[in-house]
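batch_manifest entry 22 of 60
target: Protein SCAR2
source organism: Sesamum radiatum
requested by: lab member K.T.
priority: normal
notes from requester: please return tokens only, no post-processing; we will run our own comparison against the previous entry in this batch. if the run fails, retry once and flag.
--- input ---
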Amino acid sequence: MPMSRYEIRNEYSLADPDLYRAADKDDPEALLEGVAMAGLVGVLRQIGDLAESVFSFLFLLFLWLESFG
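--- output ---
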């Protein structure tokens, strides 16, 4: 099962644009920190989508089982 569900075209659009503007262009560590933050936002989004699908399935299963009395 692949870990990534979505392919992100532009990771800079996931995080706050001020995060990238505030980083000094000559400071590669700050730039990498910003990219890591954008990646974390993407992973958290995927985890949220997975949780939504799992719990919606469980809810539908509960409703189906409840219909039997």
